[in-house]
Amino acid sequence: MSQIIASAAPFREILFIDNNSTDASRDMIRVLAASHPIRLIEQDHAELGLSAAIMSGALAAQGAILLVMDADLSHPPERIKDLLAPLFAGTAEMVIGSRYVTGGSTPGWPLWRLLLSRAGAALAYPLTGVHDSMSGFFAIGRSRLLEHASPAGGFKIAFETIVRSGRTLHVFEIPIVFHNRVRGKSKMSFGIALRFFFRWLLAMFRHLVWGPYRPIEIARSTISSNASID
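^ thats the sequence. predicted structure below, dont judge the formating
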């Protein structure tokens, strides 16, 4: 939380969506809420998935622009302003923190995890035109997310939002360095990966039957890792 505050990003509020955690996360957030603009949203249905948790936050949010990130410092807080800048400038409708464009990386990942992640991104690319639509670090207009994201749950909400939009979203990708969490473990499981694969099969089937979606202009940001909003 201190790193998000220190990033000097122009945020209105911070929403912490707790998806049935079994540690002390909720108690810690309640303490922080006494001195920070943070709200705790408790969701006790873990089976609904990460996307449903994000949609709970989107529905509760008061701002016009949302930034989604993990709370375990896997996503670099220092890049928050860079993700928001194109949205504030009106040059993008969605900005993704990408591990797989020039300048992005995943240091310390074991080979099996890197191969699995790369395979998922490669499967998604024909449907999205985005190098890392599997990323969980992105910014988007609240109305656009509510318009296109699936309320039924899932795990990779950026991917599903782009596909369900018919690739009409103007998307930027900016490079990020993704770090392994220090504590805890990922919610990713074989079952979640399998559900994504079936969703991908359905999306690809629709793509082949009804033809390609309208092309989307993907602008790869040249923002350096030190860039900031003036």
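Residues 130 and 218 are 7 Å apart (CA to CA).
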